[in-house]
Structures are given as C-alpha cells and as structure tokens.
Amino acid sequence: MDIVFGPDAVPADFPVRGGGLLALRPGHFLGASEDLIGAAHSLPPLVAQYGDLRVPVNILYGREDRILDYRKNGEAFVARVPAARLTLVTGGHMLPVTAIDASVDFVRTAAARLREPATA
Questions:
Q1: Where are the domains of the chain?
Q2: Contact (Cβ atoms closer than 8 angstroms) between residue 67 and residue 3
Q3: Which residues pair with 87 in a beta bridge?
Q4: Is residue 59 a contact partner of residue 85, using CB atoms and an 8 Å limit?
Q5: Element spanning 57, H or E
Q6: Under a CB-based contact definition with an 8 Å cutoff, are residues 73 and 103 in contact?
Q7: How many CA atoms lie within 13 A of 102 on its CB side?
Q8: What whole-number distance in Å separates Cα of residue 108 and Cα of residue 120?
Q9: Around Cβ 109, how many Cβ atoms within 10 Å?
C-alpha cells in the first residue's frame, strides 16, 4: 500500500471504508490480473490510434506517483493527442483518496472545458 499511496500516507480506514479489502477478493484479484495480461496485447493497437483522437481528454497526475510516471505516461499521451490536457499536482497515485480537493477541482475544470465553444 505504501507504493500505491506514496508519498502520501495510506488512510487508516482505507481497507474498510475505502474498499481496499475488496482487492483481496479472489475474483477481483484474478480479474485485475487478467486485465494486466490483456493490456500487453490490446494496448499497442490503441496507442497507434492516439493521434486520431479528437475528443477532449483531461488527465490528472500526481508528480510523485510511484505507479505511473507522469512524464512517461501523461506527457507522452498529451504529446500524441491534440485535444488532451495534462494537469499535474503534488501527490501520488491515489489522488481521489489523498487529494480530494484537487481531484474535485480537476473534474469541475474538465467539465467546464466541455462547455467551452469549440475552436476550429
């Protein structure tokens, strides 16, 4: 859990209140494992089409994320997708749990951008 949450602290109530114990259910564990295995096969064709995306995409990353590096994932994605916007904040991987205000602000800002007139 320290890797997933770090550098932020793991909330003491996460196993129960945050659903952390659900990840230990055999069906959930197997499903998540199958997803990871399948990604190796299904992701490359999707990545090849990133440049064709024309829908607004907003991405929130914690600069200190220990699971997904914002440079390798967030910045690389934005470089390939013309309509994508990257928002970087202080924090790790579990921003909706550890940085609630920043996460809510991000969603509100992304939703407001959807209401902006399209520019040609």
A1: 2-114
A2: yes
A3: 60
A4: yes
A5: strand 57-62
A6: no
A7: 18
A8: 24
A9: 13
DSSP state, residue 115: T
- Residue 90 confidence (pLDDT): 95
Rounded to whole angstroms, what are the CA distances from 46 to 25, 34, 39, 77?
30, 18, 10, 12
pTM of the model: 0.81
| Structural contact between residues 18 and 97, judged by C-beta atoms closer than 8 angstroms | yes
The single-letter code of the amino acid at 73 is N
For the range 9-17, what are the long-range contacts, defined as Cβ-Cβ under 8 Å and sequence gap of 24 or more? Answer: 9/98, 11/97, 11/98, 14/97
Structure tokens at 69: 């590096």
How many residues would you count in the chain? 120
End-to-end CA separation in angstroms for the chain: 45
Torsion of CA 1, 84, 71, 67, to 10 degrees: 10
pLDDT digits (tens, 9 = 90+) for 11-49: 888 888 877 788 788 898 899 889 989 998 999 999 999
**CA pair distance 79, 27, nearest whole angstrom:** 37
Do 14 and 98 contact (CB within 8 A), yes or no? no
